[in-house]
Amino acid sequence: MSIGIIGSGNIGSAFARALAKASIPATIANSRGPESLKALTDELSPFITAGTREEAASADIVLVAVNWSKLPKALAGLPAWNGRIAIDANNPIEAPLFKPAELDGRLSSEIFADLVPGARVVKAFNHLLAQLLSGDPEAEGGNRVLFFSGDDQSAKADVARLIDRLGFFGIDLGSLAVGAKLAQFPGGPLPAINLVKFG
User: Fold this and answer.
1) What is the pLDDT of residues 83-132, one digit of tens each?
2) Nearest Cα to Cα of residue 185 among 117, 102, 118, 100
């Protein structure tokens, strides 16, 4: 399955590094254009290439990791999703103030899903610190845990296989209503906890 990444900040770049380490190709894009990603793609060549937002968004699986306030613009005007998978790796908070966004009682993944109509949304890759996501998934003799959640079983199965290929141990937290709430930062109990699965 082809993979795209929208957003080249800490999480987007860490995900790209994890893919490259596992020899998995992907196209990464940001708001500044492919030329701005030359240093990253040189580092991660030949697996990670830079493209436009539209090119990254046309992949089978698209990880989105963008500053919360910039999400609507980053996801506007993209090709129809038509059941492709959108991985919500976003958190409703951003530097420099780290003030929680006002969600009006909704989950951040619900708001994200509204921005990618027709996509099968899976919440994943948002809860680990970037250096752990791009680091060695094997830790202390076990495998670092990555949580995921979603309402579409086949989409979750595809993301679970990707997590496995990257060398992590995936744990399905259930539906978005349950799992996204547990993994949402701020608010959920699971973000930034570095868990390892043994055996």
Assistant:
1) 999 999 999 998 888 899 999 999 999 999 999 999 999 999 999 999 99
2) 100
Tell me the domains of the chain and their CATH numbers: 3-197 (3.40.50.720)
Concatenating the DSSP letter of every residue in 18-32 gives HHHHTT--EEEE-TT
CA proximity to 75, closest of 59, 86, 60: 86
Environment class of 193 (CB within 10 Å of its CB; exposed 0-12, middle 13-18, buried 19+): exposed
What is the distance between the alpha carbons of residues 165 and 144, in angstroms, rounded to a whole number?
A: 13
In contact, 61 and 84? CB cutoff 8 Å: yes
Q: What is the pTM of this model?
A: 0.97
Which helix or strand (DSSP H or E) is residue 17 part of? helix 10-21
